[in-house]
Structures are given as C-alpha cells and as structure tokens.
Design goal:
This protein has three helices and six strands, in the order αββαβββαβ. The protein has 145 residues and is an alpha/beta fold. A three-stranded parallel β-sheet has the order 1-3-5. Strands 2-4-6 form a three-stranded parallel β-sheet.
C-alpha cells in the first residue's frame, strides 16, 4: 500500500456533465436548458420577485404614504434611566454614551417616562414638554445642546 495505489471509494466520484458536445451525449444543442426563456440565456439567474416577465407584484401594487427625507431621528432616553447619575451632576451625550444608554451619532431626546428624584443638569438635543417640567420641578436645569 502506497500513495500511488490510492483511489476514491467506489461510486463516490462521478464525471462532470459535458454540455453542448453533440447529440450523442444527450446534452447537446440546448445543453439541457430547453428552448428560450430567461433560464436558457447565459448569466440568466432569477432575482427575487421575478415573475417570468409578468409585472412583479411589488410594482403592481399602489405606492402609499410619504417618506420625509428631512426626518430627524433621535436616540431616546427616559427620565427613569437618569436616576443612576449622582445628584447635582451634569448629564450630556458623552456621559450617556459611556453609560451605554445611547449609541451611535444620532441626536438625543429625553422623554418623561419614569420617575426622577434628583436635581440634574441635563444637556441634550431635544426634550419632551413633560420631561422638561419634571427636571426643572426638582431644581435641575435643561440645556438644549
């Protein structure tokens, strides 16, 4: 037994299908692709939603709604999340990112959900009306950055 005697196990390897090599091969002429149509063409794989040339469903349905290209997206932080910071401290975007409350580079908006019991100086790009009232009622201050 040496490397020159090694062979694949019986039945484990097959010869590849040789397409377009004459009528005797059984795969001549159209190479098993049939006549015409998208799948007979070279490079003709079918994209998702393709319906054989029929107008796709996604294009037959009416468009709806309005997409505002100037929409401002915020990372929101609730008042209850600000409870973890020490009283009298300053809370801004960098501190919120460090604490893992917001991520990325989006603007920050403070919402009034939850209870805040400490006076804080909060700096953010936007505040809800109730959040602004709750923070100032405790003696804290609100700064729009």
């Amino acid at each position: 037994m040496d490397l020159s005697n090694l062979r694949p196990a019986a039945g484990s390897s097959k010869n590849r299908k040789r397409l377009g090599r004459g009528p005797g091969s059984g795969q001549g002429k159209t190479s098993g692709k049939g006549h015409k149509g998208r799948s007979s063409r070279s490079g003709g794989n079918t994209p998702p939603g393709y319906e054989g040339g029929q107008m796709p469903l996604s294009r037959r349905l009416p468009k709806g709604g309005f997409h505002n290209p100037f929409r401002k997206e915020y990372d929101v932080v609730n008042l209850s999340s600000l409870e973890r910071f020490s009283a009298g401290g300053v809370v801004d975007g960098a501190i919120l990112r460090e604490a893992g409350l917001v991520g990325g580079k989006r603007a920050i908006k403070i919402l009034a959900d939850g209870v805040l019991t400490k006076a804080l100086t909060v700096k953010a790009q936007a505040f809800s009306k109730q959040a602004r009232e709750k923070i100032t009622a405790l003696g804290g201050s609100v700064e729009v950055a």
